[in-house]
Every structure is written in structure tokens, then in C-alpha cells.
Write a structure and sequence with these properties.
Blueprint (H helix, E strand, L loop, with lengths): L8 E4 L5 H13 L3 E2 L8 H10 L6 H12 L1 H7 L5 E5 L5 H10 L3 E6 L2 H14 L5 E5 L10 H9 L6 E6 L9 H16 L2 E11 L4 H7 L6 H17 L8 E8 L4 E8 L3 E5 L2 E5 L4 E8 L3 H10 L6 E4 L5 E7 L1
Parallel strand pairs: 1-5, 2-12, 3-4, 3-6, 4-5, 6-7
Antiparallel strand pairs: 7-14, 8-9, 9-12, 10-11, 13-14
The structure holds N,N,N-trimethyl-histidine.
Length: 333
């Protein structure tokens, strides 16, 4: 690589109060039932384990969404404004957004992930394949607040894209991690993010649909145990954050479909009675006691369309697959 090859720009937004973040995590661990937010699934190893999950036969969402985006790429390109800034929420490997570059021809690409470290390699490699497209990697935990920091606004102005329409891309049904009230709050912030750009902006979002437990449960409890490893790895991440002494092998992976709440739940279940300690405290877990680590909501398309409207978007359109398992919505400003 020559030294004057274009490079992506990187920014890491840090939560001001790390102490408060730790206190929040510890409070969740001490609740009954205990809970840890799903963002703790995504350290460097967790992000790689998730990428492996997307290749499993049982895990249909990623490949179904990919096929919808491929099959309806021309329609999607007609809906999305030309010359927009593509803002990718939870970019990870950046592979999904990269497949949109051809159809929608963005003028700039902003990849947002909780950790900028995971973005460095993927975005660096992507930049070499798209030399003329300005790219920003932004480390930001948008689960608490979705807003671009001033430095990101300044970067867009430098890239000549301050007035461009904004296409916010939130694929993978990651919106499913949020209970409906939180999902609405996040969609409202996504709407504000689009509204701060030029006319023609909107949200392109992937949503997993309600379907039978016979399809849903294996997707979250695969035969190879990759999802189990992904779930248990959260404990190693918590150990680093809090100095706890969780032993991952002492916890079983549990994935269950909660029909009343329209969601898959992941839990970690203590294999036997054990005490987990941290500097200044400890908690006893009974055999069989659970830590709730993730919700993955499954939506009826009509209900999700209504949610988009409540968040302030105009009339949405959506595309689906032959089995009606997954939907990709375009919600204009
Ligand atoms: C990244 C939140 C969409 O809910 O399907 C995959 C995470 N958890 N297997 C999902 C996940 C277990 C995934 N999302």
C-alpha cells in the first residue's frame, strides 16, 4: 500500500462516566433475576463468534436478509436518495453496507460500532477497494444515545457531505434487542439523525418476523454450540469490566421462545450453586438460577410499520423473502 493511499478516519466516543457504567452493570448482576445488557456480548472475540453464528445452517436471519437486499437491490436503490451519506449502525465487518455501495452510490460512509477497534481492520481493507469514497469509523455505544459527536459532523463537512441526505442503515434485526418502548426511542433518534441531513433521507432497517418456535429456537441454540460460546463469552467480558470471577464452564446456555412477549430470550443458567465475587462484594447463585443476557424480538410487519410511523417516519415500504421470515423496511423522512 502506498503511503498516500486514502485512509479511513477513526473516532472513539467515550461514555463520560465509566464509573456509572460499571455501577449499572453491577446493579444488573445483583438483581433477581440477574441481567446483563446484550452489548456485553460484543468484545473482539464476541464479534468474531457472532460472525461465525451468521454462517450456521440454523441461523437464517443474516442469509435471508442478504438475499432480500440482493433480490430487491434495484427497488431499494430507487427508494433511497442519490448521493446520500450512508450511516451504518453496528457496522461490524462492514460487509452488508459494502454490498449497498454499488446500488445506492453513497457520497460518504460512516461506520458506527460500539468498539472502533473491530472497525479498524474491516474499514481499512474496505477503503482500499473504494478509494474515492470518504470513510469514517466511529466507536459509539448508540444503545444509550444515538447522536453524532461534533467531530463526526466536522468530518462530514470536510468530506463535502454536510448537506447530503442521510441514509441510516440498521440491518440484521438488531432492533430486536430492544423492548418495544426502547425500540421506539431509538427509532425516534434515527429519525432525528436523518432529519439533520438533506431531504430524501430515511432509514433502511432489517427486521426479523414472527414465526414458529421450531424455526426460532434452533437459530439461537445451534448444534455446534457456537451460540452457547457467544453467550458464555459475555462472562469473560464482564470479568474484565468488573473484575468478577465468573467461570464460563459453570454456566449453561439457555435459549427459549417467549410467545407472550414475541421474543427469543437468551439466559445463562448456573450449573450448580456458586458464589461470584468482585472487589468489595459477592453474590450467591443457586443451581439453575439464570442471568438474562439478551432479548431478540420478532415483529409482525404491520406492527413494525406502525412503530416507524410513531417514530416520525413517512409511509414505509418493505421487502420480504419467499418464506416471509424477514423484512427490510425503507422508512423515508
Ligand atoms: C445481532 C441482535 C440481531 O438477535 O439474532 C444471534 C444476536 N444472539 N444469536 C439476534 C444473536 C444470538 C442477533 N442480533
Amino acid at each position: 500500500m502506498s503511503s498516500d493511499a486514502p485512509q479511513p478516519h477513526f473516532l472513539q466516543s467515550h461514555r463520560e462516566d465509566l464509573h456509572a457504567a460499571r455501577a449499572e452493570l453491577l446493579a444488573g448482576l445483583q438483581q433477581s433475576p440477574a441481567r446483563v445488557e446484550p452489548k456485553f456480548l460484543y468484545d473482539a472475540l464476541g464479534s468474531r463468534l457472532f460472525d461465525a453464528i451468521t454462517e450456521l445452517a440454523e441461523y437464517y436471519p443474516t442469509r435471508t436478509e442478504t438475499s432480500i437486499l440482493a433480490q430487491h437491490g434495484a427497488d431499494i436503490a430507487r427508494a433511497v436518495a442519490p448521493d446520500s451519506v450512508l450511516i451504518d449502525l453496528g457496522a461490524g465487518s462492514c460487509a452488508k453496507a459494502a454490498r449497498l455501495f454499488g446500488p445506492i452510490q453513497p457520497v460518504a460512509y460512516v461506520a458506527i460500532d460500539i468498539s472502533v477497534d473491530y472497525l479498524r481492520d474491516s474499514l481499512g481493507a474496505l477503503q482500499q477497494r473504494h478509494l474515492g469514497l470518504p470513510m469514517l469509523g466511529l466507536g459509539l455505544d448508540f444503545s444509550t444515545q444515538l447522536a453524532l459527536p461534533d467531530a463526526a459532523q466536522a468530518w462530514m463537512a470536510m468530506a463535502g457531505a454536510a448537506q447530503a441526505p442521510r441514509t441510516v442503515f440498521y440491518p440484521g434485526s438488531s432492533i430486536g434487542n430492544f423492548v418495544p418502548a426502547e425500540a421506539l426511542a431509538l427509532l425516534r433518534q434515527a429519525h432525528a439523525l436523518c432529519a439533520a441531513g438533506g431531504t430524501g433521507g430515511g432509514l433502511l432497517i432489517g427486521v426479523d418476523r414472527m414465526k414458529s418456535a421450531a424455526v426460532l429456537e434452533p437459530a439461537y441454540d445451534d448444534a455446534l454450540g457456537v451460540t452457547a460460546a457467544f453467550n458464555r463469552n459475555l462472562l469473560l467480558n464482564v470479568n474484565r469490566a468488573l473484575n468478577t470471577n465468573f467461570a464460563p464452564a459453570a454456566w449453561d446456555h439457555v435459549a427459549l421462545f417467549n410467545a407472550a412477549e414475541s421474543r427469543i430470550e437468551m439466559h445463562l443458567q448456573a450449573c450448580f450453586e456458586q458464589t461470584v465475587g468482585w472487589p468489595g462484594g459477592e453474590r450467591l447463585f443457586a443451581a439453575g438460577e439464570r442471568i438474562h443476557t439478551e432479548n431478540s424480538y420478532k415483529w409482525m410487519p404491520e406492527a413494525f410499520e406502525a412503530l416507524l410511523g410513531e417514530a416520525g417516519f413517512g409511509p414505509a415500504q418493505h421487502w420480504t423473502d419467499a418464506q416471509d421470515w424477514f423484512s427490510v423496511f425503507w422508512a423515508p423522512l
